[in-house]
Amino acid sequence: MINRRPTRIAAAVLGTALAVSSFSVAHADTAEITPIEQIQGTGGSSPMAGQDATVRGVVTGAYAEGGFRGFYVQSAGSGVDPSGQASSAIFVYAPDEVSSVNVGDYVQVSGEVSEYYGLTQLKAGSVAVLDEPAESVKPLAIPLPSSDAERERFESMLIEPQGDFTVSDNYTLNQYGELSLAMGTSGILPGERLLRQPTDVFKPGSDQAKALAEENEQRAIVVDDGATLNFTTNKNKDIALPYIDAQQRVTVGAEASFIAPVILDYRYDLWRLQPQGQVIGADDADIAVNFEQLESEAPQEVGGNVSVGSFNVLNYFTTTGEMLDGCKYYTDREGNPINVRSGCDARGAATSESFERQQSKIVAALSKFTADVVVLEEIENSARFGQDRDAALANLVNELNDEAGQQVWSYVPTPSVVPADEDVIRTAIIYRAEAVKPIEESVILEDPAFSNARDPLAQAFQRVGGNQNTRFLVVANHFKSKGSNPDDGSGNADTGDGQGAWNEDRVSQAEALVGFADELKELRNTDKVLLAGDFNSYSAEDPMQVLLEAGYADLGAAADSQSYLYDGLVGSLDHIFASEELAGKVTGQDIWNINAVQSVGYEYSRFNNNITNLFTADQYRSSDHDPVLVGLQLDKKN
After folding, report:
1. Contact 280/240 with Cβ under 8 angstroms?
2. Which residues belong to any copy of the Endonuclease/exonuclease/phosphatase domain (predicted)?
3. What is the CATH architecture of 12-139?
């Protein structure tokens, strides 16, 4: 019968790379030792899979809790020469033995070799801690390879990654305790540290877009927490999230520097860097990476004498779920409803208490947003709930003025003619009355192209103290989203070129928008037009080409950042386009990175999801899109 508990023996590993634990037991079982390199082999999988083997090595990482249920061992004395063709380390799956093994132990392990979803491992039958001296493992200081074949050479080895790293994704940090880094800079987009959406810079389906997609995969690496926990499940919500708390953030775009060795690992179809022990909380001793702390109290200065912005307010609904029948909710770790999941027309907060948290963040962000005119997306269409259409909008403006301590903000009221069939969310426009004044009433475009999107809203403004020459038009937009891939044969299915579903409809919406703007120029006696909002299209995609070909300039393209993060790639779905007559009066532009770059864990919708309280009533993660801002110089003389 195999003894499945480890034999404890006094161990001494020579060198200083890993600390060593001492124990006292007799001796290890005699067995033929197989070099770990022989088990790993030089291919993508072990040539010894299914065979029994006995190995010796130094424990470099141990994980008694968190789901790994095992440890890594590496050949004694290895880590000096990076030229080896086979890895000198292996993961040992040992759920019964791991709690008695420590980093630095010199061990002998016998068991069956297997491939666990691409990771070569040894399923332990016996584990013994040896009393023999052994040379220490030294972390291998190497630039991280970009190809799978090169990474296989170092699978499960202790390394010190060399080079520059930038946080590129944090979306699953609050769920799985993982984040992604981008290595170095792009060879295709010189100086680009992040991973760009290919269709944000190149024509969809083009060779250039495909090349960038391939490079993105090669530059990406996951930093894990030494666990497989899902922190959103009830049983794990009382375990502190790794790496972050209310003060320490892991922000996309931040520099990341390694302060301790890590293990190159492969799990869940991705290459990962594992700490040497499970990370619990933001200050755990096993944290191996330091993250630059980025703060942004206000957008960059954009100059000019009038500024215009776009802000997605993430389903700002004063009608909460508790006011309606049938609502189903996302809940916190105590089962309290936080935000609406389905079952009713409300899309925002579940309760008044949750709404106050949501509103506090939106008000904090808009109060620091320096635009004179702000296009809003995803605000409640209160008419759908039997109220005045502007009720939620008026509430937001009142809150902004309360925060300012004076009447700073006004909103553009609903026009006299409104489409009969509108969505539960709408676009809106607010403005600083000291800077601009509306000219005539607003206009809503009613066009079949927008039957599955939000109808554009237009308003003419004139600078306070200015004349006809300072007049300009703002059109608020929110095109059809990329999700919910249709199968109705409409031509809107996702073709796989990077543009997502409903692209044909977004093209039609762009075409209708151009026609709408042309009509408005005549109606409002100005050729200065801004088309602003959430277009749900990246910069090089077909709908945006419609606007560019019509003579509009994408002002956000000149900014040094993007407005959205999806699947670890940054790109801009939010844009401000200027007509030819207005483009020459642009003085600056900025995309204020306060939302998309932050972990979703900071959203009001994730309140009390974890024992670590991440909520703060500030501008960070007030929405999932970043605001866009442009400056204009509008003078009385053209």
Report:
1. yes
2. 339-625
3. Beta Barrel (2.40)
Would you list the DSSP string of 91-123? Answer: EEE-TTTGGG--TT-EEEEEEEEEEETTEEEEE
Sequential DSSP letters for 57-85: EEEEEEESSSS--EEEEE-TT-SS-TT-S
What's the average model confidence in pLDDT over 8-13? 36
The sign one gets for the Cα dihedral 534, 536, 538, 540 is: negative
Cα 17–chain centre separation: 35
The answer to whether domain 306-632 has CATH 3.60.10.10 is: yes
Return the structure tokens found at 540.
């090089």
Residue in the block written with tokens 């007509």: 579
DSSP letter at 196 equals B
235-263 pLDDT, tens per residue? 999 999 999 999 999 999 999 999 999 99
pLDDT in tens, 310-328: 999 999 999 999 999 999 9
Give backbone dihedrals phi and psi of 152, rounded to 5 degrees, phi first. -60, -30
Tokens of 501: 């579903």
**Residue 16 pLDDT more than 50?**
no
The residue to which tokens 């894990």 are assigned: 224
Query: pTM of the prediction?
Result: 0.94
**Sorting pLDDT into bands at 50, 70 and 90, what band is 28?**
low
